[in-house]
């Protein structure tokens, strides 16, 4: 039975519908003669409230509104990776073919290519017992990723028939399953899932493995965990997008879902261009082979911006269910929150802080809770890591989105305007950022990198903290009058800041640094610190050691030692010892 | 479409409510005629079964509940375009005001445009030489970029915009395929006049299209002025493959007009009373800059906004900075010192710069020079604050050199005459000259190879 009504009123993306009491909450609807896509977000006594995912210019009162009779859903099937979609999973390349360089309204677009043939290897046999999540077939979606075809979550029973391995489209049936009540279901390559409902899993597992990013300040100082959550807040121009791009490029997740939520169109173009040509250092394939892009740029309809976050995370959960480690970059969650605010305002809801709706924090919590390291229904292990950018108004971290996000994430990488002004990139402030995952991933670092790793990390942070304290004094009296041991701290902190924390995203070997090299770099810096201390203990001015140029040589290690020639660090060990030894020896001569 | 509706239900600010309207569509343009024969234009901004809320562009002065006749036009706000539009002057709603008669339009385009598909964009890579060292050297303008000037009242943003427009050398652009679109929103007559006479003086008036909504023009119209301008820009850039430079001033007046209309609609305000959708609204204009992967045209935007109280965290510059690809910040302090253009280089930024400079674009040492100048100048600030506490005499030798460097940078590199056109080579050589004030060891941001070549030990 068709459920339909007619448009009663229009206010921006919010349309009120009269004429039917049958609409269900969060059902997808088609609005107007152009069949614009919308979603039911409220039901009143007389009207049903619909948010429309496309521009509503030109809609008329009295035009029909038809229910799609299902929740706002996405299609899950091979063809997701390597693609770029809008906020409701419509492929932008297909939209381009249909409407040219500018996005028209009311396009009827298949969410995924239904004609493409996939080489499917059917794994299930007739008679197998299957349940939701069981892998029945697989197909190489990209050279890198094997796409597992799973039984949809609500189906369980006995496999009755299977198709032979071969080429199939995503709508073809590859197996049939009969449940206990004798009802048969067709298993296809594609399944649907409502975006606002988290996909089920068997159980949660504590996070214990770090998400390696190749970024020193993150891996060493503020490690992320697979299955964890992180926020990257920063005012404009501090490098949020740059950080997100670096993480999307180099983190060791199997799959990257990049959500461009209310950001610049050129940035999405850049990601698309750059990722296609860049090679994944681990697999040797194009980075785009493991990436999917969701783009709702700032000039695209605002309601679809709200949905884009959910679309992205649903795709991520689907790949997690296959047993992959997925990382989501959401750039930026503030735009999503603003979309919520805009819709809420048009619904005339009572606002809470700064006009944001009162449910902002619960929505944010629900989003970040979809991250996690889990045992899947089919027994495999997978994870979703969420890294959300936050764009605080005026760069002020006390605003509602930053504050509410802070409550639900466990790693906080605060970008600092002053660092960005002095072109210290990544501009992650080492004093205000934190990661609660340090204790969880400690063992991994100690077992896989070096048993001293975390101790070194603590020492590095201590030096930076001491520098901050000393700087308070330096501001008043200048650095020249400090005693030599404190001057040494300033020098070493400078080495840490410029030689270790600063990382050049445009340098071939510095853009991604393996954790082993990160450790060795720390080792060099701390060795220099220890040796220099012995120099200072002999009352030799630290300026003499600085004059040897050894500090600058250690700073330059990031450029002079390639990522794959780590044995060169032995040379540096020697150099440090020699430089310190020489300064001491010279002074001995003078004394005699 | 010939149905006319007599009278209004209510009038508030620039909004009127028309009752009993049938077959209207959302955001449709309506014509309101008064009994005096005056015609006004408005847009339906809210629509329900039995009434429509219309925003009257020319304002509601002298309207009453009984003296109007409202007629639906059946279409959204459109502007007529043709190549003959070059050299013409329009009011804020796209009506010619230069006395040269109507435009014979090729076609009529919806001023709201449509979002550009990210897949169809071409990532901007070619730089525009503006002849202004602070911009070319440190915040390079790229073809297809949106780079606003953040300014304050009384600062020379108009002169700077004019200088950029006059001196801009765009690769692939010559006299035939280059045009400037000037869009004034709520600026005074003097400012509009300054631009007009300067364009005339420079002999480019024939390549300029002007849209003028001056400060005494209707506020409602101000919302469509930039949209008319950008629609024309899109037409010229993407249908006639022209390179278009759009100067929009003043974005602050635009945003305030938006706030005025929002509050008269009783919308829930967010920060400083601005509507929650200010970001999306600004984005719908700024995002119309760019290039397509088909055709050769480009739209480069230079919006100018005056920061209220010189506060960069005010919502208008703040949200602008989140959308645009960088910003050029002008600073009162520098201007007081007699430096023109008073570009404060540390908060200024061009996000697209990294991909459009260096070998093959400007010169291979450009990225290193820019980086080092930034880093050194940021150190100058620290030294200055130290000097203000302990006095300049107490500073170490290196710190004194930094002070010298800082002064030289401001007076020689940033400062230049209003008609001085420096090419990129001159700018970079000047940069080296300044860096050589500092000892070689201090230039830690440089690649050693570049350093050896340009600053031999």
Give a summary of the structure in a few sentences.
The complex is a heterodimer of chains A (592) and B (457). Chain A has 592 residues and is of the alpha+beta class. In chain A, 36% of the residues lie in helices and 23% in strands.
Task: Jot down its keywords.
heterodimer; A: 592 residues; alpha+beta; ten-stranded mixed sheet; six-stranded antiparallel beta barrel; 17 helices; 28 strands; 36% helix; B: 457 residues; alpha/beta; Thrombin, subunit H; Rossmann fold; 3 domains; seven-stranded antiparallel sheet; elongated
* SSE class of chain B: alpha/beta
Q: What percent of residues of chain A are in strands?
A: 15-25%
What assembly state would you assign to the polypeptide chains in this entry?
A: heterodimer
Total number of helical segments of chain B?
14
The main pleated sheet of chain A reads as: 10 strands, mixed
* Rg on CA atoms of chain A, Å: 28 Å
Helix-residue proportion of chain B: 25-40%
> In CATH terms, what is the architecture of the largest domain in chain B?
3-Layer(aba) Sandwich
Mean pLDDT of chain B: 91
Low-confidence stretches of chain B: none
Name the shape of chain B in a single word.
elongated
Distance between the termini of chain A: 104 Å
Examine the coordinates and then state which fold CATH places here, giving the name of the CATH topology of the largest domain in chain B: Rossmann fold
Shape of chain A: globular
Q: Can you summarize the main beta sheet of chain B? A: 10 strands, mixed
Please give a structural write-up:
- The complex is a heterodimer of chains A (592) and B (457).
- Chain A is of the alpha+beta class and 592 residues long.
- Helices cover 36% and strands 23% of the residues of chain A.
- In chain A, α4 links the parallel β22 and β23 (291-296).
- In chain A, α11 (453-477) crosses α12.
- Chain A is globular and about 105 Å long.
- The mean pLDDT of chain A is 92.
- Chain B is of the alpha/beta class.
- In chain B, 33% of the residues lie in helices and 24% in strands.
- Chain B has 14 helices and 22 strands.
- Chain B has helices spanning 133-138, 157-167, 189-201, 219-222, 225-239, 251-264, 278-286, 315-323, 332-336, 353-356, 366-390, 397-414, 424-435, 448-454; strands at 4-6, 10-12, 15-19, 28-34, 39-48, 51-56, 68-76, 78-81, 89-91, 107-110, 121-122, 127-129, 141-142, 149-151, 169-170, 178-187, 208-214, 243-249, 290-292, 298-306, 326-329, 349-350.
- In chain B, α7 (278-286) packs across α8 (315-323), α11 packs across α12 and α11 (366-390) crosses α13.
- Chain B is elongated and about 85 Å long.
- The chains are: A alpha+beta (592), B alpha/beta (457).
- At the A-B interface, β1, α1, α4, α6 and α11 of A face β5, β11, α7, α8 and α11 of B.
């Amino acid at each position: 039975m068709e459920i339909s009504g007619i448009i009663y009123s229009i206010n921006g993306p919010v349309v009120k519908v009269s004429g039917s009491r049958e609409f269900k909450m969060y059902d997808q609807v088609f609005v107007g003669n152009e069949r614009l896509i919308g979603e039911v977000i409220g039901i009143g006594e007389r009207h049903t409230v619909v948010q429309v995912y496309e521009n509503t210019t030109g809609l008329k009162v009295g035009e029909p509104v038809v229910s799609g009779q299902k929740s706002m859903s996405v299609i899950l099937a091979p063809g997701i990776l390597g693609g770029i979609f809008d906020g409701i999973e419509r492929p932008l390349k297909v939209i381009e073919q249909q409407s040219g360089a500018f996005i028209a309204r009311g396009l009827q677009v298949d969410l995924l290519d239904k004609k493409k043939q996939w080489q499917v290897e059917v794994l299930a046999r007739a008679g197998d017992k299957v349940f939701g999540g069981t892998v029945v077939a697989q197909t190489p979606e990209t050279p890198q990723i094997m796409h597992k075809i799973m039984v949809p979550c609500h189906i369980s029973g006995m496999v009755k028939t299977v198709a032979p391995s071969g080429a199939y489209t995503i709508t073809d049936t590859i197996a049939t399953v009969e449940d206990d009540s004798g009802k048969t279901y067709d298993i296809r390559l594609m399944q649907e899932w409502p975006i606002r409902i988290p996909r089920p899993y068997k159980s949660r597992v504590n996070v214990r493995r770090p998400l390696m990013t190749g970024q020193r300040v993150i891996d060493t100082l503020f490690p992320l965990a697979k299955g964890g959550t992180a926020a990257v807040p920063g005012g404009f121009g501090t490098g949020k997008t740059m950080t997100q791009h670096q993480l999307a490029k180099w983190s060791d997740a199997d799959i990257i879902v990049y959500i461009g939520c209310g950001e610049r169109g050129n940035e999405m173009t850049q990601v698309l261009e750059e990722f296609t040509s860049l090679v994944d250092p681990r697999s040797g394939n194009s980075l785009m082979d493991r990436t999917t892009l969701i783009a709702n740029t700032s000039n695209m309809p605002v309601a679809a911006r709200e949905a884009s976050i959910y679309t992205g995370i649903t795709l991520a959960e689907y790949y997690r269910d296959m047993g992959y480690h997925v990382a989501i970059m959401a750039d930026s969650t503030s735009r999503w929150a603003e979309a919520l605010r805009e819709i809420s305002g048009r619904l005339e809801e009572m606002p809470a802080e700064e006009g944001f709706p009162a449910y902002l924090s619960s929505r944010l919590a629900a989003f970040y809770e979809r991250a996690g390291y889990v045992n899947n229904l089919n027994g495999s292990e997978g994870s979703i890591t969420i890294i959300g950018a936050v764009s605080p108004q005026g760069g002020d971290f006390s605003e509602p989105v930053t504050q509410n996000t802070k409550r639900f994430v466990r790693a906080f990488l605060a970008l600092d305007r002053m660092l960005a002004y002095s072109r210290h990139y990544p501009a992650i402030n080492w004093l205000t950022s934190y990661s609660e995952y340090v204790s969880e991933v400690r063992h991994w670092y100690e077992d896989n990198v070096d048993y001293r790793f975390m101790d070194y990390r603590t020492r590095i942070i201590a030096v930076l903290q001491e520098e901050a304290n000393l700087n308070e004094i330096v501001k008043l009296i200048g650095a020249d009058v400090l005693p030599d041991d404190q001057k040494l701290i300033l020098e070493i902190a400078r080495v840490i800041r410029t030689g270790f924390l600063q990382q050049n995203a445009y340098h071939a070997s510095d853009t991604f640094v393996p954790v082993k090299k990160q450790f060795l770099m720390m080792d060099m810096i701390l060795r220099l610190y220890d040796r220099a201390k012995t120099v200072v203990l002999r009352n030799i001015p630290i300026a003499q050691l600085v004059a040897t140029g050894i500090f600058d040589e250690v700073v330059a290690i990031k450029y002079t030692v390639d990522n794959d020639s780590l044995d060169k660090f032995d040379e540096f060990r020697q150099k440090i010892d020699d430089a310190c030894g020489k300064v001491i020896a010279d002074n001995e001569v003078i004394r005699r | 479409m010939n149905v006319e509706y007599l009278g209004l239900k209510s009038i508030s600010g620039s909004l009127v409510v028309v009752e009993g309207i049938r077959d209207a569509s959302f955001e449709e343009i309506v014509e309101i005629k008064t009994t005096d024969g005056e015609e006004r234009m408005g847009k339906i901004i809210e629509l329900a079964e039995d009434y429509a809320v219309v925003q009257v562009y020319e304002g509601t002065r002298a309207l009453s509940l009984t003296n109007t006749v409202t007629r639906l036009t059946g279409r959204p706000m459109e502007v007529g375009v043709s190549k003959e539009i070059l050299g013409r002057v329009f009011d804020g709603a796209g009506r010619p005001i230069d006395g040269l008669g109507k435009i014979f339009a090729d076609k009529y385009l919806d001023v709201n445009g449509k979002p550009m598909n990210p897949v169809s964009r071409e990532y901007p890579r070619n730089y525009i030489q503006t002849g202004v060292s602070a911009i070319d050297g440190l915040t390079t303008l790229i073809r297809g970029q949106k780079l606003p000037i953040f300014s304050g009242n009384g600062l020379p943003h108009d002169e700077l915009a004019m200088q950029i427009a006059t001196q801009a050398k765009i690769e692939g652009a010559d006299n035939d395929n280059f045009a400037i679109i000037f869009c004034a929103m709520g600026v005074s007559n003097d400012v509009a006049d300054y631009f007009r006479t300067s364009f005339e003086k420079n002999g480019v008036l024939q390549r300029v299209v002007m849209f003028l909504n001056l400060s005494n023009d209707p506020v409602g119209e101000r919302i469509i002025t930039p949209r008319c301008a950008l629609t024309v820009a899109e037409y010229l850039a993407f249908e006639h493959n022209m390179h278009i430079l759009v100067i929009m001033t003043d974005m602050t007046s635009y945003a305030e007009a938006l706030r005025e209309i929002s509050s008269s609609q009783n919308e829930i305000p967010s920060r400083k009373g601005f509507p929650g959708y200010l970001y999306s609204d600004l984005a719908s204009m700024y995002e119309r800059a760019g290039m397509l992967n088909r055709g050769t045209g480009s739209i480069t935007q230079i919006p100018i906004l005056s920061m209220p109280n010189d506060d960069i965290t005010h919502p208008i510059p703040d949200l602008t900075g989140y959308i645009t690809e960088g910003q050029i910040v002008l600073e009162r302090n520098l201007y007081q010192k007699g430096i023109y253009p008073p570009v404060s280089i540390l908060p200024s930024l061009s996000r697209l710069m990294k991909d459009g400079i260096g070998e093959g674009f400007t010169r291979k040492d450009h990225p290193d020079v820019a980086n080092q100048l930034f880093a050194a100048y940021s150190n100058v600030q620290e030294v200055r604050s130290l000097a203000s506490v302990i006095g300049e005499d107490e500073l170490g030798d290196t710190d004194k050199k930094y002070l010298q460097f800082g002064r030289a940078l401001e007076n020689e590199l940033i400062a230049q005459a209003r008609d001085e056109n420096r090419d990129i080579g001159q700018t970079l050589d000047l940069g080296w000259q300044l860096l050589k004030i500092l000892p070689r060891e201090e230039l830690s941001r440089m690649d050693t190879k570049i350093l050896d070549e340009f600053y031999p030990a």
